[in-house]
Amino acid sequence: MRISKFFSILFFLLSSLIADDQINESTPIGVKVQVNDQVILGPELEAKPLTQNSSVVLRIKAIRPHGDAYRYDYEYYGLVSGSFDLGDYLQAKNGKPLTNKPKLPVQFKSSLPPEQIRPNPLEDQELPYLIKYKHKLIIIGILWVLGLLLLIFIRRKQFGVTEYTSQESLSTAEILRPLVHAAKQGNLGKSDQAKLERTLILFWSERLNIRNESSKEVISKIRSHSQAKLLFDQLELWFHCPNPEEPSDLDSLLEPYSKPENN
Question: At a CB cut-off of 8 Å and minimum separation 6, what does 55 contact?
């Protein structure tokens, strides 16, 4: 029993000497120091809770019995510069006051010059490559969308010009023929019927030089014209009675629209 106690005290002294060498060295503020197998005589200890006035942060990582003492693994770091005793940050785990508080001196130094109390401001530096790469992707995406919209616009414009040119190259008779034929067969839809009527009105308005008059007067003058009324009357008959039994000559009906003619 005495031999075991002797070796415990000897190990404690050796550990204290080693710990003193580690602890007495000044450590920069905020840098953690890890201590393993530190033998401390007395009851089992624990770290005191942190308060607003704490200058040292102490955490016990592991505790193992060591004869009449305990062996501790702990870490600590300082919040302010100066000399402190880690024993002030320990308390008995059983809640009883410590009669022999361990002495574990530590020192912390500031990494700033004595006359400087604040860190240097951050200097402006070049943005990381990752951020610039992200910006490049965004710019490329925007340019791609703009290019796509421009291509669609050009294609539509070209298509519109082509369609308009092809329509202009046709005579009025050629434009009217498929519409009139569909009306005769009773297959003329609402949109095509409106196109047919609009084409006829525009054609005869130009041919008869009817301007600055109401729609009712324009249609009345067209329907009263000897050549214009032929197709209008026939269309009215087809709209109400498609596929008539009497034959009808489309060429004769469309003859006034195939070439220019005076009033």
Answer: 78, 79, 80, 82, 84
